[in-house]
Amino acid sequence: DDFSLTEIQRAVDMIEADALIIHLNCLQELMQEDGDTDWRGLLSAIETVCACIDVPIIAKEVG
User: Fold this and answer.
1) Residue 2 pLDDT class (50, 70, 90 cuts)
2) With 90 as the cut, is the pLDDT of residue 1 above it?
3) What's the whole-model pTM score?
4) Helix axes of 5-14 and 42-52: crossing angle, nearest 10 degrees
């Protein structure tokens, strides 16, 4: 599911987060028969979150 910048900021504020971690699970998506492997726009979306959310952003590959 996609979340708006407002929803992301609300969640960060609600828990008084010091940072936001974005989990990327590319390997799992590649291995699944119906995995989501269309990552067009992902870097741009991450850049937008980094520019608009007022805590440090950590992008981490998990899987």
Assistant:
1) confident
2) no
3) 0.82
4) 50
